[in-house]
Write a structure and sequence with these properties.
Number of domains: 1
CATH topology: TIM Barrel
CATH architecture: Alpha-Beta Barrel
Radius of gyration: 17 Å
Order of helices and strands: EHEHEHEHEHEHHEHHEH
Mean pLDDT: 93
């Protein structure tokens, strides 16, 4: 599998093989709905398909490893069959899921919301398999993270954490070119902290690694607007535009067509200005 250049703008399509992800429209739990979803996002221009088998919404239930594997196996299997030339990422914090996926389907991008802190074998596994790796900032777990939102300076603390994490990854054998950083919007952060972090995103970008942002339809948008995730598309577009203007290169989204459009506008008219 050839991966896209992660230093240039990429659109990562969210494909949740779960029944409890926060945005109901993103849930695809059977083969036919997966085929439809993956075909649709590829036709719309997604360059990465992100398969998740474990909901990371605040307060989400724990998922046993074998159930997560069943979901990931189903999702990646359909993605490889329907879109064999499109890169696949797997949203997991478990090294065993990574090992099984690579053994069965070949190389993937690993999208780890816990940056190796949820599984002591994760970093060594990623290094040994030579995989691109997304390390995200979070405190606690999806079950506890929203009780851990005390920061003196959220931008500085997130940037410092990610700088230290990148150094740890390199020291443990992960090649620099395989490291991607994610500031973790919505994970152990209040609404106000999320917007402060977005305003200061360039501090994370200036660390010199590709930066992924996951802003799509999150509560930091719809709670400000007084609606639900279903009402948050315009807000998502606005925040993704701000993120790419500050240097983010990977947009993780539910709505691929709109993200591809703003990426094209930016690349055509604003890059390098």
């Amino acid at each position: 599998m050839t991966f896209p250049d992660l230093h240039t703008l990429q659109v990562m399509a969210i494909v949740n093989v779960t029944a409890d992800s926060f945005y109901a429209t993103s849930r695809v739990v059977d083969t036919q709905s997966l085929e439809r979803r993956i075909t649709e996002v590829v036709e719309q221009g997604a360059t990465i398909i992100d398969i998740g088998g474990y909901s990371s919404r605040p307060g989400a239930d724990d998922v046993p490893l074998e159930e997560e594997w069943r979901r990931v196996d189903l999702g990646v299997g359909v993605a490889r069959r329907v879109a064999p030339n499109v890169a696949v990422s797997v949203d997991t914090f478990r090294s065993e899921i990574v090992r099984r996926t690579v053994e069965k389907y070949g190389k993937i991008i690993v999208n780890d919301i816990m940056a190796g802190e949820g599984d002591e074998q994760m970093i060594a596994t990623v290094a040994a398999l030579d995989l691109p790796y997304v390390a995200m900032h979070m405190r606690g777990t999806p079950q506890t993270m929203q009780s851990q939102t005390e920061y003196s300076d959220v931008v500085a603390e997130v940037a410092d954490y990610l700088a230290a994490k990148a150094a740890e990854l390199e020291q443990n054998g992960v090649r620099r070119e395989n490291i991607i950083l994610d500031p973790g919007f919505g994970f152990a952060k209040s609404i106000e902290q999320n917007y402060a972090l977005l305003a200061g995103l360039k501090r994370v970008v200036d660390l010199g690694y590709p930066v992924l942002v996951g802003l799509s339809r999150k509560s930091m948008i719809y709670k400000v607007l007084g609606g639900t995730a279903e009402d948050a598309l315009a807000g998502t577009i606005a925040l993704n535009w701000e993120a790419i203007c500050q240097g983010a290169t990977i947009l993780r989204v539910h709505d691929v067509a709109e993200a591809v459009q703003i990426a094209k506008i930016y690349d055509t008219n604003f890059r390098g200005l």
